[in-house]
Amino acid sequence: MVISNKKGWIRIVEASIAILIIFTVIFAVAERRKTPTESDLSEIVNPLLEEIAQNIALREVILKDTSSSTTAEETINSFLSERITSPNIGFDAKICNYDEYCGLDKYPEGAKGSIYADSRIITATIDIGTTPKKINLFLWSKE
Prior knowledge:
By secondary structure, this protein is α+β, with helices and mostly antiparallel strands. It contains four helices and three strands; from the N terminus they run H-H-H-H-E-E-E.
């Protein structure tokens, strides 16, 4: 004679489902907390520079920039703060003449690991006749 213990099987199934739900929640939370790596920063910076280069208003601000003014850099940093929503990524932009070197003034506070930098030369159309400018964009992971 076979004795059927249905209550035991139901408890095993309930426990298995509960374990699956707990693991699903743990993996979902862990995925959200994952910080971007340096390779992710290289994937972020190029589209940002492309968008800056194609935005006519930003191009005009960059081309009218003088070495004594920080208005263009503030405008670009404001634009970047709208696009970079992750609190774990720090950024800065520097604008200079295309044949000059312009880097960060100092190592950013709270930066963890390497700083990723890329640049793009912004030129005007022929009829405007201004000298080209270079925009350097710096991204880093925060602690």
